[in-house]
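User: Teach me something about this protein's shape.
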Amino acid sequence: MTARLCLPDIWQKMTEAIGKEEEDIITLSDWIQLCESSRKLAREPAWQKAYVEYMFKLLDESGDHLVDQAEYVQVLGYFGVNRKDSSHCFDQFAFNHQGQLIHAIDKKKFHVLWKQFFHSEDPASPGNWLLGKKYKTQE
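Assistant: First, the predicted structure itself:
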């Protein structure tokens, strides 16, 4: 299934943001442009607001308004991320203000990590791990 069919609200907001029709394809170049342009905005664009809400609900399988490691590992497994890698990723961002590992993250923490994922220029930012293992880009 395509993102257009599975996530119609997000798809509509994304195509609108890049000036395409909903029937059009969003290319990798479009996606990169969309992410780069959102970094320059003072406010989170509509497509990101919809996307972050969707992702939190997806990861919060139990519906308890928390994403714990078991849920995170399970859901990333649907996307082909193995248990070892997804557990490692969770440990890179699931910690409190004292730097201690925590069992689960709430929606507020998820939003902070989401913003880091899309906006941080710091390669050590914990949010870089939110959607799976980070890879070095080739310069």
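Now, about its shape. The first strand starts at residue 66 and ends at 68. The helical segments are 3-6, 8-17, 28-39, 46-59, 69-78, 83-93, 107-119. If you'd like, I can walk through any region in more detail.
User: That's plenty for now, thanks!
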